[in-house]
């Protein structure tokens, strides 16, 4: 399990991930803490192109050193710095939400649903029509004439 020793360390690594997927140069990483593996996730999971990439939840988890998405989500729920990881998830969701306004948003819709988004009905609720409807005719006014002879002018 990946451990972070300060919120600044985690925030710095999250920011480096978003810089790397945006195709911007990433500042040199400080040497990792003596308790963290020496293999830098920065080198392993940084895109090899300057072309901007889409930020991904799994990409962020790998970049931060989590062995699985389940471990990332568990740390996001109960970890010491869960607020920072929730903000990072929100930034990724924001990128997918922007894609909803493009001509073919199917992939973005699928990704957002996987992230927990649901379709919500409107605030107004429509009452269901009764299963049986009783109609009664109330006679008001003059009687309807059956033939022309009954009409008074």
User: In percent terms, what proportion of residues is strand?
Assistant: under 5%
Major pleated sheet:
none
The radius of gyration computed from the alpha-carbon positions, rounded to a whole number of angstroms, is: 31 Å
Low-confidence segments, ≥5 residues, pLDDT <50? 34-38
Tell me roughly what share of residues is in helical segments: 40-55%
How would the global form be characterised?
Answer: elongated
Report the total helices: 6
Mean pLDDT: 77
SSE series: HHHHHH
| Strand segment count | 0
Describe this protein's structure.
This protein is an all-alpha fold. The chain has a domain of about 80 residues. The protein has six helices and no strands. The chain is elongated and about 100 Å long.
Provide a short characterization of the protein structure.
The protein has helices spanning 7-21, 41-45, 57-64, 69-78, 82-98, 106-114.
Keywords:
153 residues, mainly alpha, 0% strand
Secondary structure topology:
Elements: H1 7-21, H2 41-45, H3 57-64, H4 69-78, H5 82-98, H6 106-114
Helix pairs in contact: 1-3, 4-5
């Amino acid at each position: 399990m990946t451990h972070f020793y300060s919120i600044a360390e985690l925030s710095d690594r999250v920011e480096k991930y978003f810089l790397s997927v945006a195709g911007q140069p990433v500042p040199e990483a400080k040497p990792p803490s003596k308790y963290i593996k020496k293999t830098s996730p920065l080198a392993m999971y940084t895109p090899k192109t300057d072309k901007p990439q889409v930020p991904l939840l799994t990409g962020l988890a790998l970049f931060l050193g989590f062995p699985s998405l389940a471990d990332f989500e568990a740390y996001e729920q109960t970890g010491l710095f869960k607020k920072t990881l929730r903000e990072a998830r929100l930034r990724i969701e924001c990128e997918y939400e922007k894609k909803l306004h493009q001509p073919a948003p199917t992939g973005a819709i699928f990704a957002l649903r996987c992230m927990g988004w649901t379709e919500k009905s409107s605030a107004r609720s429509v009452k269901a029509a009764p299963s049986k409807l009783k109609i009664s005719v109330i006679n008001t006014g003059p009687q309807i004439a059956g033939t022309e002879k009954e009409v008074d002018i």
